[in-house]
Amino acid sequence: MTFALWHPSQGRDRRSSIVNELVLPHDGDRLVHGNAEVMPQYVERALAEALARGAGVALMHAHPLGSGWQGMSSDDRDTEASLGPSAFGATGLPLLGMTMAGDETVAARLWVRSGPRRYQRRECESVRVIGQRLQVFFEPRLRPAPTAGRTQVRSVAAWGPTAQAMFARLRVGVVGAGNVGSIVAEILARTGIGDIRLIDFDSLEVLNLDRTLGATRLDVLLARSKVETAARAVRRSAVSRSQRVEAIEFSVAESDGFRAALDCDVLFSCVDRPWPRAVLNLMAYAHAIPVIDGGILVRTIKGERMRGAEWVAQVAAPTRRCLECVGQYDPGLVSAEREGYFDRPSYIAGLPEDHPIKRNENVFIFGVADASLEALQFLSLAVAPGGISNVGAQTYTAAAGCLSSDYSPCLSTCLYSGPDILGRGDHSGLVVTGRHETAEQTRETRRREQRRLPKRILRSGAGIGDRIIELLERRVAN
Q1: Residue 12 within any structural domain of the chain
Q2: What is the pTM of this model?
Q3: Domain residues for 264?
Q4: Is 349 exposed, middle or buried, given 0-12, 13-18 or 19+ CB atoms closer than 10 A?
């Protein structure tokens, strides 16, 4: 039995408690007599440390002989119920109780103040453990495992029913629904991910059709957003019986997009600008949501012939190197993008030809390869084939046909892996979201186009057609 500290992470629909520090017992802080009992001085020290760090208090104990999500004995309930008022009174945050079973399943609950001197136990829906490997445990009554259907027979045969049951209950966010993001979304839908959130403010244009999976000229004609188009494709491809997909027409750098992303268990970074990557980097470390990031670089000779290409994929998460340290974005360019310079033609014209903002060689064949590499990073993280969960930051060099892995840690000066950011959630103190004028203008232009009478008629007819197709497809048994 030990105390720990936790910080809140408030999403749009979900509130998470991030445990980031243990308050280990000293000699005499516990009495062990079959059960364990915490002494008053240990309680006082845990409360003092929580108050000093602006954190909540968690009490963790083990059921060594148990397996699966653990219930509470009468002693467990009495101990946590007696500590609830002290924890809330000292920190303003509810006591978090946690139980680890012998098979390492972790169960959790919060003791929430429901009235004067009254505290009610609320079971957490799930517990996410992130380090070298991702493990997610679900409260079986609140989040029962769905039954895999016939469309998932091969998937279950590949990685087993336990992994498939986890996939079916995960909420995965895809940030960026263009070239790589549209392909990643398709992979996730056919893998059986139960809940997918697509986050992108941009509209679909003709120039996107050569690299956006599922997009057609009709989608452009109907003034559809990239996420609306991708969501339709996901619904058509989904193999999970309980598939949910939501299109979020915001940038992850806007508050609405940011909070929607915080509800996810895993995030795929399919963006190429520095500001959203910096936002996702904060989520990976402050909010402990693993971010699977990828990128493509094509080198040409005077724009006429390809000299070479590289694509990369890595997982940003506690214990791994962050996106800033791996070089996926330049922090000096984040403020320039936030100020809107990257959308000013006069500013872009003055940049060198090899500047990241001017690169536009991202085509479908490279997107497929990078999306596959990101998906395999996710599989390693969540399933650990052969017991290996960390395959490093991977780079594929097309000219040589060579795949390399880098396991380097963050730099010693890294802000994100330090104690001021790591696991501090909403208490990190960093404000990375803000007004995104380009996103606002893009949404308004799209809505204005959609309100035109011919577009409204076409969109209504297309919507009816899509719903009829979905109803017919549901008749095909899983």
Answers
A1: yes
A2: 0.94
A3: 150-443
A4: exposed
